[in-house]
Design brief:
heterodimer, A: 75% helix, elongated, B: 175 residues, mainly alpha
Chain lengths: 170, 175
């Protein structure tokens, strides 16, 4: 019924998992719905920390306290977004890898991750010096601004994929 | 469920909404949105970001109510931190949502899922008015969150998830 896969993406797409999702009338929209609920939770909670790091909100409270409140929920939601995103990808793998906006989205996700890693391992070392300050050091503000920019870009490219799947590739 | 929605659509087609959508699609504002490829995706991004701000804020207030986050703040401080974000996000949601309707009137207004979502939106706004009005005044005055308030907080989160479900399924309505 399905042609013989000629590359790894088709092998993923024509797997029984991929074809089950693609053939079902309700699975793809349901996964999309969970993806939306997960991603708005990721963004909503990440921006709470970013705005504190910019010194715009919650300035009475320590950055570490704001982060401790939100990060478990950010990570939980991120796991759900990654899981549902992977399942969406599996069902249309070869269309997605041929779509520039999908590749840009993955690039922006990687940059958001690297920005977070750098902040966590480098900037965070001196946290006790600025944790309770209202005005943050430049490195902290830059990390927060980059986080906001990268995540906005992730949303934009993610939405762009849905409008261009028919234009690029099969 | 599919049958029910199908009959709902059939009924919508007999109402004056049809003339309204046809008139809307012919307005110059609608035509502008229809002919600019990036208009709808960008409006949808604004819509999604507004949901993120609203849902994130509602989540943090609810988590504080259950002492699952933000316990170093009082309930009143938590409310003060997030309440403006909740109302302004709602304003942004209504504005971006209205523009999305204007850009695709038939897809939305002659769509049973859209109207189910609108019922959810009205309920969510009424529930939020209750929660951030009466409930918060009582909690700020030192009152305790009883089972009714806690159930209400959970139901508001569930309601928002259902609204997002409706939003996504507008694209998949059986029409």
């Amino acid at each position: 019924m399905y042609p013989t896969p000629t590359n790894i993406w088709e092998r993923i797409e024509f797997s029984s998992l991929g074809t089950t999702i693609a053939e079902s009338t309700w699975m793809f929209p349901t996964l999309e719905t969970l993806h939306v609920i997960a991603l708005v939770s990721v963004l909503g909670t990440i921006f709470v920390v970013d705005l504190r790091m910019l010194g715009w909100t919650s300035n009475k409270f320590a950055v570490s306290a704001v982060a401790k409140d939100t990060l478990p929920w950010t990570w939980g939601a991120f796991v759900l977004a990654a899981l549902t995103g992977t399942l969406l990808f599996v069902s249309k793998a070869s269309s997605y890898v041929g779509n520039p906006y999908f590749l840009w989205k993955m690039g922006m996700l990687t940059l958001a991750g690297l920005n977070m890693k750098y902040f966590h391992f480098m900037t965070w070392r001196t946290v006790e010096h600025w944790d309770r300050d209202a005005s943050m050091p430049v490195a902290v503000k830059v990390a927060a601004a980059l986080s906001i920019v990268f995540w906005l870009a992730v949303v934009f490219f993610g939405r762009a994929i849905g409008f261009t799947l028919g234009i690029f590739g099969s | 469920m599919g049958d029910l929605l199908y009959h709902f659509t059939e009924w919508l087609r007999t109402t004056q909404l049809v003339e309204l959508t046809l008139w809307l699609s012919d307005t110059s504002a609608s035509l502008w949105l229809q002919t600019h490829f990036w208009a709808i995706p960008i409006l949808q991004c604004i819509h999604i970001l507004s949901i993120a701000a609203a849902f994130g804020s509602i989540l943090m207030v609810s988590l504080r109510l259950f002492s699952l986050a933000g316990t170093e703040r009082t309930m009143a401080e938590t409310e003060r931190r997030y309440i403006r974000w909740i109302w302004w996000s709602l304003v942004m949601l209504v504005v971006s949502g209205s523009l999305l309707v204007l850009s695709e009137p038939i897809r939305d207004l002659i769509n049973p899922v859209f109207w189910c979502k609108m019922v959810g939106v009205v309920l969510a706004i009424l529930a939020s008015l209750w929660f951030h009005g009466r409930v918060m005044r009582r909690l700020a005055a030192g009152g305790q969150a009883g089972p009714v308030i806690k159930t209400g907080a959970v139901l508001i989160i569930v309601l928002w998830c259902l609204i997002m479900l409706g939003g996504r399924w507008i694209a998949y309505a059986p029409v």
